[in-house]
Design a protein that fits this description.
Elements lengths: L6 H23 L6 H7 L4 H7 L2 H18 L8 H15 L3 H19 L1 H25 L8 H21 L8 H16 L1
Length: 198
């Protein structure tokens, strides 16, 4: 017999099921083409469960982004020099790039990006998420370089995010033509040129 869940645990499980369903359907069909009824059905729940936990599609979108950010900040591991930092971040990148959940999120992210560009009410959630990712990346690179990044950490964070998204999207389409280690190579190139120019 299964362990009995508390009310909070049941609510958390319901939220996760809804987020998984929404992320999957948004990635496969697009946000505009996916109804809340379809999300509820995919999660084997009612539409009321969505409104009990989220503020419609915008709320689901914001929660999916927040979940991804929370998962991203769970990894750490300081390094002491820029080369080691690039290697460390590259190893982390390579370990997750080919996971099915990474592919699903990449597809959903493209949908979110377009949806946010077309829907002013959703733009803030995407902008806030991107800012949080950049701030987290700036903190990571500052820690991993012993507080001595070769260019300002905020600028490096922008470039890291661009590399992350750009390499991932190309790799997921053409893994042989764009191997995952290009991410670490790109970070090293940025850091080396930044150090040479500074």
């Amino acid at each position: 017999m299964g362990e009995r869940l508390t009310r909070a645990q049941q609510q958390q499980r319901t939220r996760q099921r809804l987020l998984d369903a929404a992320e999957t359907l948004f990635a496969e069909r697009g946000i505009h083409q996916t109804s809340l009824e379809e999300v509820a059905a995919e999660a084997e729940l009612t539409k009321g469960a969505i409104y009990a936990n989220f503020d419609g599609k915008h709320g689901l979108l914001a929660a999916i982004l927040e979940r991804r950010y929370t998962d991203q900040i769970a990894d750490a591991g300081p390094a002491v020099d820029p080369g080691a930092a690039a290697d460390s971040l590259g190893d982390s990148y390579e370990s997750v790039i080919s996971l099915p959940e990474t592919r699903r999120f990449a597809m959903a992210l493209l949908e979110f990006w377009l949806y946010s560009m077309r829907t002013p009410a959703a733009r803030d959630a995407m902008a806030q998420w991107l800012q949080a990712v950049r701030e987290h990346n700036a903190k990571r690179i500052t820690e991993r370089t012993g507080g001595q990044p070769p260019i300002p950490a905020s600028q490096l964070a922008i470039l890291m995010t661009a590399l992350d998204v750009g390499v991932a999207l190309q790799h997921l389409i053409d893994p042989e033509g764009v191997p995952a280690d290009v991410y670490a190579l790109g970070l090293k190139a940025i850091m080396d040129s930044g150090g040479a120019g500074g």
